[in-house]
Structures are given as C-alpha cells and as structure tokens.
Design a protein that fits this description.
This protein has 601 residues and is α+β, with helices and mostly antiparallel strands. The chain is 45% helix and 21% strand. It contains 16 helices and 20 strands. A hairpin with a 6-residue loop joins strand 12 and strand 13 (270-276). Helix 1 (8-36) packs antiparallel against helix 8 (285-328), helix 9 packs across helix 15 (542-553) and helix 12 (432-449) runs parallel beside helix 13 (474-486).
Amino acid sequence: MEKKNISIRYTIFVYFTVTALAASLLITFSLYQRLSTQVGEMVQEENQSLINQVARSVESYLRTVMKLSDSLYYGAVKNADLSSESINNEITLLYDNNKDSVDNIALFSQSGSMVEAVPAARLKNSLDVTREEWFLNALEKTENQHFSYPHVQYVFENNENQYRWVVSLSRAVELTEGTSTTQGVLLVDLSYSSLEHLFDGVTTGKGGYVYLISNDGEILYHPKIQLIDSGRMQENNKIAAGYKDGNHREEFQGKTRIITVKSIGYTGWKVVGVTPKNVVSLNSIKTRLFIVFLITLILFILALINSYISSRITNPIKELEKSVGILEEGDLETPVSIGGSYEIQHLGNSIKNMAKQIRVLMDDIVAEHEAKRKQEFDTLQSQINPHFLYNTLDIIVWMIENEQKAEAVKVVTALARFFRISLSKGKSIITVRDELEHVRNYLMIQHMRFKNKFSYQIDAAEECMELTCLKLVLQPLVENAIYHGMEFMDGEGEIAINVWRTGEALYLTVKDNGLGMTEEQVSGLFSEQAHTTSKKGSGIGVKNVNERIKLYFGEKYGLTIDSEPDEGTAITIHLPAVSYSTMIEKETPCGYTSMPKEHGQ
C-alpha cells in the first residue's frame, strides 16, 4: 500500500487547531463576565499616570526655559551698562548651551529698537514690535514671564530660522545705560519641535492620543493638527478646557470616550488624553489568579500534546541538521539524512542535490580561477615599453653613421639575443642561465649607450644555472638601478648581480652603489602608482615583477629591498629552487605551470 505524504503544515494545523479551539472556548466563556466588569478601571489609572508624567515633562521643560530667561536677565542684562559694554558674548554663550531648544534670543528697548540678537539677525522693516502682543504683555505685567501660542517666526529676516514654528517667551527687563535705567523686553523664541518631542510616541492605548491646550482652549499641540486645520477632523478642545484635573467621560461625534486632564502650573496649559471606550484592561487579583490557573492547566495539556507532535516533527529535522552541519564543515561527500514528513524529505533531497551542484561549481571555480590567474600573469608579463628598443636603434644608427661598424654589430647581436630570450617561444619560465644571458645582453647595450658610465659584474653558482627562473625579473631591476640609481650620480656606478641557492630556495640579487632610497620611497615601489614607470625603460616596474612572482610561485615568494640614501640599493629575488626540466614536465596544455603545493600554490 502506498504511503500517504502528510505535510508538516497539515499535522500542525489539525492538532494545534483542535487544541487551541478548545482552549479558546473554555477561556472565553469562563472570563467573559469577569472581563466585562473591569472595563475602564485600569484604563483610567494608566491614563492618569501617563498624562501626569507628560505634564511633568512639559513643566520641567517650561521651568528650564524660565531658568534660561532668569540667567539671561540676572546674569547678562541687569548688571550691564549697555552704553559702554556689550552683552553679546554672555547671550551667545547661553544660546550655544541651549540652541537645541532655542531658536532666537533678542533684547529690545522700550521704544522697540533691538539692542542685541543671537544668532545675528535684524528686524523686518515693516514690523513695529511695540504693537506685538508678546511685547505689550511683557510691559503690562512686568513681574510675569509670558508664553505665546505656537506661530511661525516673523520678527526677524535674513535668518535661517525665520520660517520655523516657535513658541515665544517674553518678559520685562531693566536696561541700564550710564546713570539712567529704562524698561526693555527680553524675547526667547523656543523651537516648537522641542515641545513636540515631549509628546512623540505618547498614546493612551489603541486609538488614543494626547494633546496640549491653553487655558482658553486653543490647541498648542495635537498629533493630528493638520487634519484639524484642514477641517477634515474636529476636536472637543473648547469643552476640554473647562474640565478639572482627572478622568471624564464624554460623548463626542456619537462615540463615548474617556478624557484625562492634567493642568500645568504657571501657564495654565492643560495636557488632555483621549481614550476610546472600548479599551479594556484587567485589575482584579482574583481574576489574575483565575486566569493563571486556567492558563497553567491549558499549558500542561498542550505540553503533553506538543511533546508527542514535536517528536514526530523535529527528530527528522535534527538528523537533517546534523547532515547540513557536516556539509558546512566542508565534507560535501557526506550522506544526507532523508526522512519525516513530505516537506522534510523534499528538503533533504534538495540539500543533497545542492551539495552535488556545489561540488560541480567548486570544480568550475577552480578551473576558472586558474584561467584567470594565467590571464593576469600574461597581462603583467606583456607590459613592455618600446622606448628601450627606440633608444637602442638610435645607438646603432649613430654607430653606423660614425663608421663604428664593429660596435654596431655588437649592439645588434646583443639586441637580437635580448629579444630572443624575451620571447622564449611564449614560455613563462626559463633557466637561470638564459635569464642571466638576457640581462647580460641588456647591460652590454646600456653600457655602450651610457659611454661606460658604469661597470657591472655577474656572479652565479654553477649549480643554479639549470634551475627554474621566471622570465624578465632581473632586467627591470637592473633598469631601475641604471635610470633611477645612477643616472644622476657623480662618479662611476657599479652593478653587481649574484645568484646562489640555500636549501630549497633560490636567491638572485641586484646591487648598485647609486643614490639609494628612503623607507618611504621603498614602500612606494609596491604601491598602486608603482606601475607608472619611466618612459625610458621597459615599462615593467618593481611592483609588476613582485606580483608576477607571487602569481606564479605563491605569496611566500617575491622581492625584498634594502636601501639607504647615498649608500645604494640591493634587491633580492626569492624563488623556489626547482629544476627547469621538472617544471617543463608539469607544463599544462595551455602553457601555464601549476606549482606544487610546497611552493605556495
């Protein structure tokens, strides 16, 4: 009989739906009466606590602003003689310490002229501040500090804050000019956004909100003020202004809601919380204990059922997870556990096929990586600048024109040998003997070109002659020694090339007595800009040589440079000591040699 595939979703749905349904019915009927009697009690307590907290935050904010006003008056304005000194620095200091919540601070005389303003600003030409409500209120009740309704800043122009919403605080101050004193007005524009931040994220439950009104019912803050201003929403703020502190129930637009009110000292502002009637909370200790008992009983029954279900579902998943863990460790040949429900079996088969595909992709990536490295190697090796050839041909032409035919023959012969080894039938590796012959021909040509300005010697152990060497590694280093090390030095230059073997390592050194380099210059040879070399030479820089060696033989091989200013430079090439015949046998069909692992590949 064919086994029926049962999905995880179907199993969980059947068992847990029946269980949850039974539990839901039991809880619903048991708690319905108790829950209905708890409506509003917890809501009102929580709302009262929340509104009190918001009111305290607003009071604290207003007290901070009033303290700033006192600091400005008693610390900067009151004791200053404005006829002989400026209080701009004191006001600026207080502004800088409070600029997160303050937009402008300004001091006006009784006639309405501006004495100081921070940050720097000037009054609008058409504005007479003596007629403004904040100015009149300050002079009318000199003992008070007066807060305005939120408004767009309109007093100053050419100010980056001129179009921002602010709440203005104004107070009367005493101005001293010489021996006379007059009244003035101190204006502090508070950033409306700093007041808004006190209400950010504050709600009184689902569908509830909090707003701020003045003592005459004007809205100072409302989370839906734009809808109210556009007429798309209405608020019962005028009625709310008459409510005393506490909780109130009201009918507004056909809906019952709970209004929580808290007055703010000094200003008479009120924080109003609005909560829909249908928000329910629990408060009774007996109800809580009853719910805990029912939940404990239901959880115990569900635990027994879940224990059976989870064992049916999770055991195959655990086995599959173990297989995946082994695959993550890199063992792609491990067998994948396949069992359990239809979905788990399908997942196991998918992971098994994925592992198989990963093995195929890894093989493809290795082949692609080898091809890419071969392409990078060939690109680096092909960067030969033609200027060396042009200069050498110029020498040959000059010798023939001056009837130095024997010398011209030497140069032509050396040039031919030089390019014969450079080509090497497209091979990337040659023997140490051929590399030394290549650089010897180069030195002969340069020696004739620079009219014996330098001498050179080549010293190589015979045991090293048939070892493997990467093509074109010595010539760029000798080229640097000639053009950059000795071209501008006084006296005769010397170039010494030495080759020796130490165990499984082969070393080739190019040493000169030229101008030398600093540590920064040595580091610069391996930088990104090091590929841009002199147009007089071959165009293969030190960085190029170093990268070719590392690409071919591995990261442990390459160049080391020892140089001192005015002392000369010694560059050592580190290669593996491998017989050339051995390397030829390992040559791949595409012409690229894969190095043995002990050589860094």
